[in-house]
Amino acid sequence: MIDLKQLCQSNNLDFDDKFYEDCEVFTKLLRQWGQVHNLTGSLAIDDINENILDSVYPLSFIENHESFADIGTGAGYPGLILAMARRDIKAYLIEPRVKRVSFLNFVKASLKLENLTVICNRVEKVEDLNVDLITSRAVTNTNLLLDITNNIKEENSSYLFYKGSLVQEEIEQAKVNNYTLVNRKDRNYLYIKGK
Ligand SMILES: C[S@@+](CC[C@H](N)C(=O)[O-])C[C@H]1O[C@@H](n2cnc3c(N)ncnc32)[C@H](O)[C@@H]1O
């Protein structure tokens, strides 16, 4: 089994001990809830650690943001993990499926994540929210993501989309400018800067 701290450090990421303790609680709860409810894919520890690393990896290259909203957080990747890693940033998780929202709220309460708000809705129906970073993994293509998040963006919002091999086609289709593309294994992180 690969230790999460070692995994993060070998990727030039370091967090305080509290983050790793929180990840242990998250992992335990995910494995408990995941056996009963259909929350996510693999519940193997190594896969959970890899998903945690995938979630926080962009913290090594993105700018500082005051708030972010994660679209379609599911069982927690990447938005819940980002909120655990950066308790100083206001975090919103937008997820319409009730069981997944119950799990996210249970983790929020267990870890006393005061920076976190979980919204049970589809993003296009969310009102009165504007954030300066919008994140999403495995929900829909870039063009559609930009479209359905129009109501929660600020004038200069940035975007961080966790993409796979189709990222270049998506960039062209969505006519994206001013972006950074960072690759790690099969993951392509598409960071579209608002300013
Ligand atoms: C394949 S799961 C991905 C979950 C998580 N982001 C991950 O990478 O493991 C897609 C999630 O997006 C949510 N979703 C789908 N359409 C959405 C929408 N319009 N607004 C917010 N969430 C949405 C689904 O309920 C589901 O939990």
Automatic annotation (TrEMBL):
Q: Indicate which residues the UniProt annotation says bind S-adenosyl-L-methionine.
A: G72, Y77, V123, E124, R137
Record keywords: Cytoplasm, Methyltransferase, rRNA processing, S-adenosyl-L-methionine, Transferase
One GO biological process term is:
methylation
Localisation per UniProt entry: Cytoplasm
Query: What Pfam family is a match for this entry?
Result: GidB
Q: What is its main location?
A: cytoplasm
User: Which superkingdom does the taxonomy of this entry point to?
Assistant: Bacteria
- Keyword Amino-acid biosynthesis in record: no
Q: What is its EC number?
A: 2.1.1.-
Named from the GO MF annotations, one term is:
methyltransferase activity
* HAMAP family, A to Z: 16SrRNA_methyltr_G
What is the stated purpose of this protein?
Specifically methylates the N7 position of a guanine in 16S rRNA.
Q: Give the similarity note.
A: Belongs to the methyltransferase superfamily. RNA methyltransferase RsmG family.
| Protein name as annotated | Ribosomal RNA small subunit methyltransferase G
Whose protein is this, by species?
A: Arcobacter roscoffensis
**What gene makes this protein?**
rsmG
